[in-house]
Design a protein that fits this description.
Low-confidence stretches: none
Number of strands: 13
Radius of gyration: 20 Å
Strand order of the largest sheet: 3-2-1-4-8
Bound molecules: zinc ion
Mean pLDDT: 94
Distance between the termini: 9 Å
Order of helices and strands: EEEHEEEEHEHEEEHHHHHEHEH
Structural class: alpha/beta
Largest sheet: 5 strands, mixed
Helix content: 25-40%
Strand content: 15-25%
């Protein structure tokens, strides 16, 4: 069974025709014209039509998009990067292609993809945390995406870890995202930039403290810079604090960590996260803890997961 999966990101739309093993048979990729919401809708319809032509056997379409999604109605209620309000994406795709369609949150479909074909393969219960500039997440429980009663559940990035902690974009303080995202790596380094040990990181930012980002700290950490490593250790500890709460809540088979801040930095974040998690899970001496593993599908997780979700329609 072949289905079409479409991953709508803030900078690009990645789409593919995917078979039941998760193999991508044909691909399309175009830029997201985020400032022109109608053009984004037209772009989605265009890549979907092209893939329909390339894979005439396709039987359904799945879309993952950032934002608040009403899965039942197939509507994107709002998106963080695109000026979308109540966009009826599912009906538009069904009208255009004559195929059943489903629209879900991008983190949910990525988690679904990893649970079927990636790092969580074979796991019925999987928590996925995506550490990028922010933190996203998705839960697969009993082999299905967990969305909650109104479709707004599994916002793992805004689980509060430290009520007096750093401000979060959502208006609260000390959210998982504020404490352990790529942006929080940059913030920690900027706060400590006056320390003599920060010299290399400050130099990498052109001598301008305000320009220190998580990427720059990551670059220095990969070269073994002690200051950058200590910032990663601190951030990894907070990642582990959040993961401990997820384990106490869900006791999943596996925890998958994806996203740009975790990719390419090897175990710089995951090693301290595992230690911090293990110390905090209730009864940790007497139980098997879920492995904390890096995501495996990379940028394909969204489109492969969206295509797999479409398969549930047929
Ligand atoms: Zn928040």
């Amino acid at each position: 069974v072949i289905t079409i999966g479409i991953d709508v990101g803030g900078t690009k739309i990645a789409a593919g025709a995917v078979d039941a093993d998760g193999t991508v048979l044909a691909r399309r990729r175009i830029a997201t014209e985020a400032e022109h919401p109608q053009a984004v809708v037209a772009g989605i319809a265009k890549v979907a039509s092209e893939l329909r032509a390339a894979a005439p056997a396709a039987v359904a379409v799945g879309v993952g998009a950032a934002g608040l999604i009403d899965v039942e109605r197939g509507v994107v209620r709002m998106a963080p990067n695109i000026a979308w309000h109540d966009v009826h994406l599912r009906d538009l795709l069904t009208d255009r292609l004559g195929l059943p369609a489903i629209v879900d949150n991008d983190a949910n479909v990525a988690a679904f993809g990893e649970s079927l074909f990636g790092a969580g393969r074979g796991a019925g219960d999987q928590a996925m945390v995506t550490v990028g500039t922010g933190i996203g997440g998705g839960l697969v429980i009993g082999g299905a995406i967990y969305r909650g009663a109104r479709g707004l559940g599994a916002e793992l990035g805004h689980v509060i870890l430290n009520e007096g902690g750093a401000p979060c974009a959502c208006g609260n303080r000390g959210c998982f995202e504020a404490m352990a995202s790529g942006n929080s790596i940059g913030r920690r380094a900027r706060e400590r930039a006056a320390e003599p040990e920060a010299k290399t990181v400050v130099e990498l930012a052109g001598g301008i403290v305000e320009q220190i980002t998580g990427e720059i700290v990551g670059e220095a950490a990969k070269k073994g810079d002690d200051f950058a490593l200590s910032v990663f250790a601190d951030t990894g500890k907070w990642l582990g604090v959040g993961l401990a709460s997820l384990v106490n809540l869900l006791d999943p088979d596996v925890i998958v960590v994806g996203g740009g801040a975790a990719a390419g930095t090897g175990d710089l974040l995951l090693a301290p996260a595992r230690v911090a998690m293990e110390e905090r899970v209730i009864g940790h001496h007497r139980r098997v803890l879920p492995p904390v593993v890096p995501a495996r599908l990379g940028y394909d997780a969204g489109l492969v997961g969206a295509a797999a979700l479409a398969r549930t329609l047929v």
